[in-house]
Amino acid sequence: MQKKLHIKKGDLVAIITGDFKGRQGKVLNVLRKKNKAIVEGINIITKHSKPTKAHPKGGLLKKEAPVHISNLLLIDPSSGKPTRIGHKLNDKGKVVRYAKKSGEEIK
Fold this sequence. Notes:
The strands form three sheets. A six-stranded antiparallel β-sheet has the order 6-3-2-1-7-8, with no helix packed on it. Strands 9-10-11 form a three-stranded antiparallel β-sheet, with no helix packed on it. It has a domain at 12-75: SH3 type barrels (Roll), CATH 2.30.30.30. The chain is mostly beta strands. The chain has no helices and eleven strands.
């Protein structure tokens, strides 16, 4: 069984450590098996590619590389600052994520 992650696709996150510390970006993809996420504009790498039909010239392609989930914190929707995430039951009995700083439910 996969571990429940606090980050989902489409979330706005802050990088808390590493070369990109303090920057924010939107999560494009979550790699559950590797506990990593691809964040827009963060951890850009240069990939060398041979010419193909899709890219006739080939050359250097810039793309985002995965970042470990432990290096990401969700941005609180009310304050705009990084916050930890909790899980709780809402009034309809469904488990939802909430921001620990403000207590606000995260959609």
